[in-house]
Amino acid sequence: VVNKLCLVTFDRNRYSVPAHYVGKTLLLRAYAERVEILERDKVVATHTRRHERGQTMLELEHYLPVLAYKPHAVTHAAVVRQLPEVYQQIRRRITQTRPDGYKDFLSILLLHQSYSANDILNAIESIGPEYVTAEQIRAHIERHIPTTSTVPDELLQYRLKKQNPGKYDLLATGVVH
User: Fold this and answer.
1) CA 58 to CA 6: how far, in whole Å?
2) pTM confidence score
Protein backbone atom coordinates (compact mmCIF):
# COMPACT_ATOMS: atom_id res chain seq x y z
CA VAL A 1 0.00 0.00 0.00
CA VAL A 2 1.34 3.43 -0.97
CA ASN A 3 1.62 5.63 2.13
CA LYS A 4 0.82 9.35 2.31
CA LEU A 5 4.45 10.19 1.49
CA CYS A 6 4.12 8.42 -1.89
CA LEU A 7 6.31 5.55 -0.71
CA VAL A 8 6.09 1.76 -0.71
CA THR A 9 8.22 -0.30 1.63
CA PHE A 10 10.11 -3.40 0.60
CA ASP A 11 12.88 -5.19 2.46
CA ARG A 12 13.13 -2.30 4.99
CA ASN A 13 13.72 0.25 2.23
CA ARG A 14 11.30 2.79 0.80
CA TYR A 15 10.71 3.55 -2.87
CA SER A 16 8.67 6.43 -4.30
CA VAL A 17 5.76 6.15 -6.72
CA PRO A 18 3.76 8.88 -8.50
CA ALA A 19 1.63 10.87 -6.07
CA HIS A 20 -1.74 9.86 -7.50
CA TYR A 21 -1.20 6.30 -6.23
CA VAL A 22 -1.34 7.30 -2.55
CA GLY A 23 -3.56 4.88 -0.66
CA LYS A 24 -3.66 2.32 -3.47
CA THR A 25 -2.35 -1.22 -3.33
CA LEU A 26 0.29 -1.88 -5.97
CA LEU A 27 2.34 -4.90 -6.97
CA LEU A 28 6.09 -4.82 -6.32
CA ARG A 29 8.51 -7.01 -8.25
CA ALA A 30 12.02 -7.29 -6.87
CA TYR A 31 14.94 -8.28 -9.06
CA ALA A 32 18.62 -8.47 -8.21
CA GLU A 33 19.38 -4.96 -9.50
CA ARG A 34 16.01 -3.20 -9.65
CA VAL A 35 12.57 -2.87 -8.09
CA GLU A 36 9.51 -2.41 -10.27
CA ILE A 37 6.21 -1.17 -8.90
CA LEU A 38 3.14 -1.99 -10.98
CA GLU A 39 -0.54 -1.20 -11.13
CA ARG A 40 -1.95 -4.34 -12.74
CA ASP A 41 0.35 -4.85 -15.76
CA LYS A 42 1.55 -1.24 -16.02
CA VAL A 43 4.94 -0.36 -14.50
CA VAL A 44 4.45 2.92 -12.61
CA ALA A 45 7.93 3.20 -11.05
CA THR A 46 11.34 1.58 -11.39
CA HIS A 47 14.19 2.06 -8.93
CA THR A 48 17.67 0.66 -8.46
CA ARG A 49 17.33 -1.94 -5.74
CA ARG A 50 19.02 -1.13 -2.46
CA HIS A 51 20.35 -4.11 -0.52
CA GLU A 52 21.36 -2.19 2.61
CA ARG A 53 18.57 -1.32 5.04
CA GLY A 54 16.90 2.01 5.83
CA GLN A 55 17.36 3.59 2.40
CA THR A 56 14.79 5.85 0.74
CA MET A 57 14.75 6.18 -3.05
CA LEU A 58 12.94 9.31 -4.25
CA GLU A 59 12.21 10.48 -7.80
CA LEU A 60 11.46 14.19 -8.27
CA GLU A 61 8.92 13.47 -11.03
CA HIS A 62 6.79 11.49 -8.56
CA TYR A 63 6.41 14.54 -6.31
CA LEU A 64 5.92 17.36 -8.83
CA PRO A 65 2.09 17.35 -8.61
CA VAL A 66 2.30 17.58 -4.81
CA LEU A 67 4.86 20.39 -4.98
CA ALA A 68 2.69 22.25 -7.50
CA TYR A 69 -0.24 21.95 -5.08
CA LYS A 70 1.88 22.93 -2.04
CA PRO A 71 4.59 25.20 -3.49
CA HIS A 72 6.11 26.22 -0.14
CA ALA A 73 7.15 22.58 0.37
CA VAL A 74 10.05 23.11 -2.08
CA THR A 75 11.89 24.85 0.76
CA HIS A 76 12.12 21.69 2.88
CA ALA A 77 10.94 18.58 0.98
CA ALA A 78 13.27 15.58 1.14
CA VAL A 79 13.05 15.03 -2.61
CA VAL A 80 14.31 18.59 -3.18
CA ARG A 81 17.13 18.24 -0.63
CA GLN A 82 18.50 15.23 -2.53
CA LEU A 83 18.82 17.15 -5.81
CA PRO A 84 22.32 18.12 -7.02
CA GLU A 85 24.09 21.01 -5.30
CA VAL A 86 23.42 23.39 -8.19
CA TYR A 87 19.70 23.17 -7.39
CA GLN A 88 20.44 23.93 -3.74
CA GLN A 89 22.38 27.04 -4.77
CA ILE A 90 19.47 28.21 -6.90
CA ARG A 91 16.94 27.46 -4.12
CA ARG A 92 18.96 29.40 -1.53
CA ARG A 93 19.51 32.36 -3.86
CA ILE A 94 15.88 32.62 -4.92
CA THR A 95 14.31 32.10 -1.49
CA GLN A 96 16.69 34.53 0.23
CA THR A 97 16.06 37.37 -2.20
CA ARG A 98 12.25 37.37 -2.05
CA PRO A 99 9.70 35.99 0.43
CA ASP A 100 7.79 34.26 -2.37
CA GLY A 101 10.94 33.13 -4.20
CA TYR A 102 10.00 29.50 -3.57
CA LYS A 103 7.41 29.90 -6.36
CA ASP A 104 10.17 30.80 -8.82
CA PHE A 105 12.18 27.79 -7.69
CA LEU A 106 9.13 25.58 -8.12
CA SER A 107 8.72 26.80 -11.70
CA ILE A 108 12.29 25.58 -12.35
CA LEU A 109 11.48 22.18 -10.86
CA LEU A 110 8.26 21.92 -12.87
CA LEU A 111 10.35 22.08 -16.05
CA HIS A 112 11.14 18.42 -15.31
CA GLN A 113 7.62 17.61 -16.52
CA SER A 114 8.56 18.78 -20.03
CA TYR A 115 12.33 18.37 -20.33
CA SER A 116 14.95 15.83 -19.32
CA ALA A 117 17.06 16.40 -16.22
CA ASN A 118 20.21 16.49 -18.38
CA ASP A 119 18.79 19.23 -20.61
CA ILE A 120 17.85 21.30 -17.56
CA LEU A 121 21.24 20.83 -15.89
CA ASN A 122 23.05 21.73 -19.12
CA ALA A 123 20.97 24.89 -19.42
CA ILE A 124 21.69 25.83 -15.79
CA GLU A 125 25.42 25.33 -16.32
CA SER A 126 25.36 27.43 -19.48
CA ILE A 127 23.42 30.29 -17.91
CA GLY A 128 24.93 30.09 -14.42
CA PRO A 129 23.10 29.24 -11.18
CA GLU A 130 23.58 32.79 -9.87
CA TYR A 131 21.18 34.27 -12.41
CA VAL A 132 19.07 31.45 -13.85
CA THR A 133 15.26 31.56 -14.09
CA ALA A 134 12.73 29.06 -15.42
CA GLU A 135 12.10 31.21 -18.48
CA GLN A 136 15.82 31.34 -19.29
CA ILE A 137 16.13 27.57 -18.94
CA ARG A 138 13.13 26.97 -21.18
CA ALA A 139 14.42 29.39 -23.82
CA HIS A 140 17.90 27.82 -23.72
CA ILE A 141 16.54 24.31 -24.13
CA GLU A 142 14.19 25.34 -26.95
CA ARG A 143 17.10 26.96 -28.81
CA HIS A 144 19.22 23.82 -28.51
CA ILE A 145 16.66 21.11 -29.26
CA PRO A 146 17.27 19.64 -32.71
CA THR A 147 14.50 20.65 -35.08
CA THR A 148 14.90 17.68 -37.40
CA SER A 149 12.19 15.10 -37.00
CA THR A 150 12.49 11.47 -37.90
CA VAL A 151 9.78 9.51 -39.66
CA PRO A 152 9.33 5.91 -38.53
CA ASP A 153 10.30 3.28 -41.12
CA GLU A 154 6.73 1.93 -41.19
CA LEU A 155 5.44 5.31 -42.38
CA LEU A 156 8.20 5.73 -44.96
CA GLN A 157 7.07 2.51 -46.62
CA TYR A 158 3.38 3.47 -46.62
CA ARG A 159 2.02 4.78 -49.93
CA LEU A 160 -1.44 6.16 -50.70
CA LYS A 161 -3.22 5.08 -53.85
CA LYS A 162 -3.95 7.88 -56.29
CA GLN A 163 -7.68 8.55 -56.19
CA ASN A 164 -9.92 9.06 -59.22
CA PRO A 165 -11.91 12.30 -58.79
CA GLY A 166 -14.58 10.89 -61.13
CA LYS A 167 -15.77 8.69 -58.25
CA TYR A 168 -17.18 11.76 -56.56
CA ASP A 169 -19.51 12.34 -59.53
CA LEU A 170 -21.16 9.01 -58.66
CA LEU A 171 -22.14 10.43 -55.30
CA ALA A 172 -24.14 13.19 -56.96
CA THR A 173 -25.88 10.82 -59.43
CA GLY A 174 -29.55 10.50 -58.69
CA VAL A 175 -29.64 13.37 -56.21
CA VAL A 176 -32.43 15.88 -56.88
CA HIS A 177 -31.59 19.48 -56.14
Assistant:
1) 9
2) 0.76
